[in-house]
């Protein structure tokens, strides 16, 4: 039976590989929010996590499987090493999903076999057969990956894949684990697999790749030309080291250049049929959500979703775009969900109009979330003459994706100037309900605010990143602040938006401190449980 999907399958691993990016750790609620948005985006498969890695990972995979893994939703997948306990945990975690998948892997390159696994090729072949069959005993949909396939000996790789498919793997994933291959090499690798694995027609060929040399997307597109039909990618390309192949770049490359790729998928050149199931209008919103929740900012010149992706400063470019967008734009900004529309809501607008506009933007809020966002909207409407859809998105993301509400910023007041020493006064409500006030002097207003907050909160941390960007143009623009704090070997992010950048900075800092403090509480509870 030849399994040749009509479209390219998009396998999103933002919640698994993407979360392994330093500082991008997400809590369960944040993972669920991203999973829901990935479902709206139209991804075919969500790799929700590594169920065996921790109780928290298991719970997150299970909750996503239960909530997002519906009949008309995506397949929910859990990663598992080629070990009985890993596979059993993955099977249990994805059980609530209508459509589930177990993704198991073992390394196959000589360097991994010698230094990491310390196993022979014969042992790896036996483990592959046994563990794929074990996964198959739980669920029909099984994916197998030979880790570091890009540096594996081809003949051994062919044999491993043949054994995996014979044992029941329905998808075989070819990872460029260390981002080492070039497009021509990666394409040749996929072609070699198609030509030399006898039972390859019984499985879908998938690819997974890292961006260490900046070639991940190019490698994937070459893989599509040579027979790959599933692409494993992440939103904004986040992931370990230099990240993964970026979903938005792959999808839009296949969309904009579909006439080029059509023949490789057995379609007429002129076919306008989409090559993926992705709703491209959800791309920008998904990018923003992942950026906000992970604290991983999108660089302005990032392809597709960067702030400058549809901006033109050159006079020649501006003149051309004004006459016809196609002169310098190969895609319409609205195609990825960007809009320049100014909403007609103002400070006199009612809750129903506010809710209706949010629904048009794709936000379905609970009554509690709507109330919080509406209060914030009224505050901003009193300060800004015009509120854009971007402002609305910032308000919603800032209000409903908050960190645990432990410490709460009640007041921040700053005094600074060219000949004055920056001084900040803050009032913080503690988790116990007490209001504490303190003041501090700093090298600048934000430094003074952070020193004052630290004096009140007294939670050890190291500030490793502070960044500010405006949501829209103009002096009354909402300013978004993202910060990252380090404690021991963990990084905690905080995010906030406000027309007052000092207030936004303080709120972002408190958000990050709340995440850190919550983690310390959990650690202490575990230590006490062990003692008892």
Q: What this model shows, in words?
A:
The structure is a single chain. The chain has 532 residues and is of the alpha/beta class. 40% of the residues lie in helices and 19% in strands. It has 17 helices and 14 strands. The chain has helices at residues 28-41, 55-67, 84-93, 110-117, 121-136, 154-167, 183-196, 216-225, 247-256, 258-261, 283-294, 315-323, 351-360, 367-381, 389-400, 445-457, 501-531, and strands at 9-12, 45-49, 75-81, 100-107, 142-147, 171-176, 204-209, 230-233, 408-417, 420-429, 435-441, 462-470, 479-487, 490-498. It has an eight-stranded parallel β-barrel with strand order 1-2-3-4-5-6-7-8, surrounded by seven helices. A three-stranded antiparallel β-sheet has the order 9-10-11, with helices on one face. Helix 1 packs parallel to helix 2 (55-67) and helix 5 (121-136) runs parallel beside helix 6 (154-167). The longest helix has 31 residues, at 501-531. The radius of gyration is 25 Å and the shape is globular. The model is unreliable at 1-5 and 312-319 (pLDDT under 50).
